[in-house]
Amino acid sequence: MRRVSIFGSTGSIGQNTVDLLQRQGGADVYDVVALTGAGNIKLLAEQARALRAEVAVTALPERLDDLRAALSGSGIAAAAGPEALCEAAARPCDWAMSAIVGAAGLEPGLIAARHGGVLALANKESLVCAGALVEETCAAHGTRLLPVDSEHSAIFQALQGENRAAVERILLTASGGPFRNLTREEMRYVTPKQAMAHPNWEMGARISIDSASMFNKALELIETHVLFDVDPEQIEVVVHPQSIIHSMVGFRDGSIMAQLGPSDMRGAIGYALNFPERAPLPVERLDFATISRLEFVAEDRARFPALRLAREVMAAGGLTGAVFNAAKETALDAFLEHRIGFLDMSDLVTDVLDALGAEAAATAAGYGLAEVMEFDAAARRIAMRRVNGMAATAEM
Ligand code: NAD
Ligand code: MG
């Protein structure tokens, strides 16, 4: 039986992954090793019981007793805290889903990358923070890295059977988010609640807000650069509000391969779960007569500075991505807590890059996790100082 683990099983990607495992035979077909979550103990325990997992882990040490109680009589081991997450990741498995949100997903993902099976990667932050390290770890252990982000799954699918040297450009599609048509002035006073309402995709709160600010597309630009080994100039962002085309690859003969599908992450998760096969998936079928036309708009770097910042990060290289991501995560927390405004997020990230970018860019290849986490921590410290300054100014 195929041994599978899901890191972040209680999240949006995690729940969709559990859903597919269950539809494909659940515990009768898969040997489920580890499931992990954070505060939603009830759901974590339900998933662990349904899939007869070996171990369930909450990231929150103070919730261990609750998890033990919820699992009593099941024979499933309970554990808690960041170290327990890493121990769970060290348990051998053939297929691991990395779906923790944020840089917190990096270390468990790196450990799971040592088993030589498949690392299904939803956690784009790990590629932004430490792309080379993730790729080196997979290569060193013969682990196959399969992208789960819908755009990157689309690009990966469009590249099957193709000669990589014939790739001319990658067309990364973006829905544009809920504020696609707002002016900068109109964006100034939007609330976290408005930013969370994504027009097409149902996702976790953090990635939904990142979609509204285009920081999600910024992370995805860097993710594309890492995964497909293309120069930044070869990657174009195309705003496609319908999210029907999930991304495209343009070849040197002028041909373009696109992957299309409904806005349902089970498409990309199911592809990574069944690769290289295609199994039947419970997603809606597209009806082109109803769709009638596909719409595209050019990207707007003036209204969405995150896209410009991503280009700067790619050009700088080294560990600039770790600084960028940590600053972005801190800015997002501050926005969620109503401490800074929507537009302050990109200003804050710009400031942190100004302060730490050059040093991070100078990091030579062959860096380790410790260096990544040092830049991550330093960027969060500077970002917090800036948040406190911005919040104080706003109160005056
Ligand atoms: P989510 O917020 O719905 O779920 C996050 C999961 O991580 C939960 O299981 C939560 O318990 C766990 N978690 C949160 N903080 C943690 C911590 N500090 N330590 C350990 N575990 C922690 O997020 P999501 O929308 O499912 O996104 C997960 C990842 O997948 C993100 O990297 C996101 O960018 C990526 N992604 C998501 C989607 C989507 O449709 N939701 C699409 C593409 C990529
Ligand atoms: Mg995406």
TrEMBL record:
E.C. number(s) listed in UniProt: 1.1.1.267
Residue span(s) of domain DXP reductoisomerase C-terminal: 260-381
Record bears the keyword Manganese: yes
GO-annotated biological processes: isopentenyl diphosphate biosynthetic process, methylerythritol 4-phosphate pathway involved in terpenoid biosynthetic process
Listed GO MF terms: 1-deoxy-D-xylulose-5-phosphate reductoisomerase activity; isomerase activity; manganese ion binding; NADPH binding
Domain annotation 1-deoxy-D-xylulose 5-phosphate reductoisomerase N-terminal: ranges: 4-131
Pfam families hit by this protein: DXP_redisom_C, DXP_reductoisom, DXPR_C
Residues reported in the UniProt entry to bind Mn(2+): 149, 151, 220
Cofactor needs: Mg(2+); Mn(2+)
Enzyme class: oxidoreductase
Top-level taxon in the UniProt lineage: Bacteria
Membrane-spanning segments: none
Binding-site residues for 1-deoxy-D-xylulose 5-phosphate, renumbered to this chain: 124, 150-151, 175, 198, 211, 216-217, 220
Stretches assigned to the 1-deoxy-D-xylulose 5-phosphate reductoisomerase C-terminal domain: 145-228
InterPro entries: DXP_reductoisomerase, DXP_reductoisomerase_C, DXP_reductoisomerase_N, DXPR_C, DXPR_C_sf, NAD(P)-bd_dom_sf
Catalytic activities: 2-C-methyl-D-erythritol 4-phosphate + NADP(+) = 1-deoxy-D-xylulose 5-phosphate + NADPH + H(+)
Function recorded in the entry: Catalyzes the NADPH-dependent rearrangement and reduction of 1-deoxy-D-xylulose-5-phosphate (DXP) to 2-C-methyl-D-erythritol 4-phosphate (MEP).
Protein name: 1-deoxy-D-xylulose 5-phosphate reductoisomerase
